[in-house]
Amino acid sequence: MGSFPPVQSVTRAIDLLQALNREPVSTISSLHVQTGIPKPSIVRLLQTLAVKGLVRRAPKHGAYHLTSQVRSLASGYHSEPKIVEAAAPLLDAMTRRIKWPMAIAIPDGHAVFIRYSTVSLSPLSLHHSSLNMRLSLVSRALGLAVLAFCDDDEQNFILKALRASAEPEDALARNTAAVRAALSKVRARGYATRDPKVRPVSNTLAVPIFDGARVVASVGLTFFSSALEPKQAVHDHLGQLKDVAGEISTRLASLQEGAITKAL
Cys-Cys with 101: which of 18, 37, 122, 155 at CB 3.0–4.6 Å? Predict the structure, then answer.
């Protein structure tokens, strides 16, 4: 960490850009709900971003959207986690077949974050973008599919940290018996689904991805609750999802071996 506190206007601008990226068009009210930034500040930030060509006002009164100019912010970034490199073509192909959006989540701190998704390829997605979305390890399918397959020491360490978390969705970690039962269930059946109390309009089916014996990520598909019951999703897609996870692990090992050989 640096010697000075973060510049609030910069952190707010980044929060606003990330919120704008989640929806095709956003209103000031929706941006306020997502970011907690006061509405007058949102208006000033949007006007500044518009001057820089990153944001444009939509025909709908009070609505805004990102422009293609935002790509310039990432034009110098060429690195990609090997797991995403291994997974992306497989997820793209499966989404084209089954239509439901898919995602890869990677643990970071005491949560998982979506690092790749096929939202843009799916006609059945609730989100414009889910990249970098934080998901709880104890309420979300993609999080449970990671935590349930951690070794005992790592799992205990994470649960201890989650008990002190202020995130509402992490509250289950404070109920030791309930969270242990949930994790045991996931481990026994080999897959996770989302806590039905969280965003009941949809659900996610997820399985772990391993690097050798260690769980390093999870892969899942999200579906409308009105269109598919969890049991039917398991029946229709669990086998395919496990096959994809296994192939990602194989590709990941191959990429790592290639990197070692290249280094030698």
Answer: 122
State how far the alpha carbon of 35 is from the alpha carbons of 2, 20, 28, 97, in Å.
Answer: 24, 10, 10, 35
CB 192 within 8 A of CB 144: yes
H/E segment holding residue 154? helix 152-162
59 closest CA partner among 91, 27, 82: 27
Q: How far, in Å, CA of 140 to CA of 199, rounded?
A: 10
Question: Residue type for 248, please?
Answer: I
List, in order of start, the domains of the chain with CATH numbers.
Answer: 8-74 (1.10.10.10), 82-263 (3.30.450.40)
pLDDT for the residue 73: 78
How many whole angstroms separate alpha carbon 11 and alpha carbon 76? Answer: 21
Q: How far is residue 112's CA from residue 172's CA, in Å, rounded to a whole number?
A: 16
pLDDT of residue 130: 78
Interval 91-132: pLDDT, tens = 999 999 999 999 999 998 889 999 999 998 999 887 766 788
